TrEMBL record:
It comes from Dickeya solani D s0432-1. Belongs to the FlgN family. Required for the efficient initiation of filament assembly. This is Flagella synthesis protein FlgN. The keyword Metal-binding does not apply. Keywords: Bacterial flagellum biogenesis, Cell projection, Cilium, Flagellum.
Amino acid sequence: MEKLVKLLEQLLFNMRELDIVLSDEQLLLCAGHVDGPALQVITDKKGSLLSTIQHLDKIRLQGESVLRVKAPYSNHATLEQTWQQITALSESLRDRNQHNGLLLGYHLDHNEEALAVLKPRHAQSLYGPDGQSRSNSISGRRISI
């Protein structure tokens, strides 16, 4: 039973770490300009924590099977209290992650709109993709140096 208590505490610790990462992500997404590399670092941390949490939960389920107990652990005060903290934090994390997803969607929409404005102008460029001037000159004369 002690192993399950420690496992739930470890799960709660990682979820609190995820809460910090989601807060950082939210601050970054609320800024006027999103720092791409910083967002990538946060995304990597979030992915790592989610993998750890998923792994710990898998071990928890195996431990429950061996000990023949099941969440919400109503017959075990310590387990029940920790489980209540886990479920409350889980709901908070879900809500914050959904909010961050909406913020990210807003930034993606904004970038797509900016690209849509820039694309027609890019087609009128004086230079081709190779960096050389296009054959149709604007002044009507071509000058070589």
